[in-house]
Amino acid sequence: MWALAGVGFATIGLGWTLVSADRVEDQANKVTVSVYMSTDCPVAMRTAPRLAQLETEWEAKGVEFTAYFPNEGETQRRVADYMRDRKLDFPFRLDVGGSKAKSSGVEIVPTVVVRRGDEVLYRGPMDDAKVTEEVKTHYLRDALNAASEGKEPKIKEAEAFGCYLMAGDPIPAMEEVNYAEHTAAIINDNCLVCHRPGEVAPFSLEGYDNARKWSRMIAKVSSERRMPPWLAVEGVGEFSHEMRLTEREIATLAQWAEAGAPSGDLSKAPKAPEFPVGWRLGEPDMLISMPKPFKLGDDGRDEYWNFVIKPDITEPVYVQAMDVKPGNKAVVHHVIAFIDEKGVSDKLLEGGRDGGYQTFGGPGFIPDNALGGWAPGLQPERLPKGAGFLLKPGARIVMQVHYSKSGREEVDQTKMALYFAKEPVTMPTEIAWLANPAIRIPAGNAKAEFKQTIPLPVDVTLYSLMPHMHLLGKEMHATLIHPDGTRERLISIDKWDFNWQLNYMLKEPKLIKRGSRIEIVAVFDNSEDNPSNPSSPPREVLWGEETTDEMMLLVAGVHIHLPGGARRAGSL
């Protein structure tokens, strides 16, 4: 059995627990403080230092503080950052739909509710002013002093001041939640792009019977943020076609699973979406394919194969978009397209087969450029007008395919569609490889952190970001430091998964002025406790292409603004 913590209040019972009479009495007399807050209310922000001081003082005396965030749009990451930045070192919960706040009579945030057991001793503001120097009445401190002496506080309720409670729709009640009216739309919109017959996911979630069968697994992986597969932290950067669930959706799926996945009136269920049969961006300007069918074995680790393709072009073209059609959706996990202008990949082919050669992670050479990546569920997107990746006559496209095994021998021949710019390209786009090849990760270190700062001597327009590490990777964060010293986080991944290497396209291109710096921080786990560690016992790990090596690399799609329109490929 599993339990969902931190999203709403849905849980799955774990059976009976015997509790002593003394413990029951202790719980009945225990003093607790519930603090209802918001990450964007200025009053809550101003009073946070006083709250942190009070919690530290009274926690030592056995008083339990818990923060609840009931407003719509709050997320686990945003709240965690808020609590950490303000040194509020006590537990927090998302109150999805504001059910707990409403049942506690809360209409304004911030509001504190002091209880002895189930008895409400005080409800209202912490004190009577926004600014510390203007506080005259300490409502919360007075209530806690009275409670500690077994007395009732003189003031049991005061008028709160701050921001109105703005909770979203409540989670459907346990006796109401059902597939037809509540979860079918969530699953249709977020899961079926991969989880349907003939697609890459190992099972289908199409229709009630399939969704019911997998309901507990759906609730588990969504609560753990493993599905949908989108590693970029919410609230850091704005990217196109983000694949993530809201906190309310996650809590609704959990409530439905706990209720036994009832169907409801299936005549009210929304129809499954229709997915395009052809190419999603229309007929391509060029269609390329792996040179020949590729045979994949039935067992073992995932494999990375690089297939060398020579496009039939006689003049330079600019590629604005790419899309992929896996030849075998059961085993093609993701695809990345690199450009080789020097023919290095031809030499690597000498040790390969079926028109490809095997590597781990990278393509085995430093690419001259790249066209982007594809993964199930990602929507292909054109670069803005005037932008495009240059593809020269004679250049090779190296199509790297990540294969996962299916338990039987498989055959694949994946195809790629290219879309060319139809208008003059004034901002040629290229790939900047922001790498730190000097990493040395000590054996046994569970949190080896490396920092790299890259100065930008020219203006740069940023289009996309793709973090890359191997099996020891845990986190990667990229921060833009403006010329005036202000910092802006570009992307954060705090739970790296090597199996989901996604290219994150910015919603809008970002002009970065010269004199700025990009700071990249990566964290690795080279301990025995890392189940993905390929070395047992752990050993010192350096930069490299092999499974047992590591990389600290941020791949950025950019246009580099140079005087006179000059162009310098792949370098900042």
Architecture overview:
- With 572 residues, this protein is an alpha+beta fold.
- The protein folds into four domains: 21-164, Glutaredoxin; 179-268, no CATH class; 286-425, Jelly Rolls, CATH 2.60.120.310; 429-565, Jelly Rolls (Sandwich).
- The protein has ten helices and 28 strands.
- The strands form seven sheets. It has an eight-stranded mixed beta sheet, with no helix packed on it. The chain has a five-stranded mixed beta sheet with strand order 3-2-1-5-6. Strands 13-10-16-12-14 form a five-stranded antiparallel beta sheet.
- Helix 2 links the parallel strand 1 and strand 2.
- Helix 6 (179-190) packs across helix 9 and helix 8 packs antiparallel against helix 9.
- It is globular.
Defining key terms:
single chain; 572 residues; alpha+beta; Glutaredoxin; Jelly Rolls; 4 domains; 10 helices; 17% helix; globular; disordered C terminus
Shape: globular
CATH class of the largest domain reads Alpha Beta
| Distance N to C terminus | 51 Å
Query: How many independent structural domains?
Result: 4
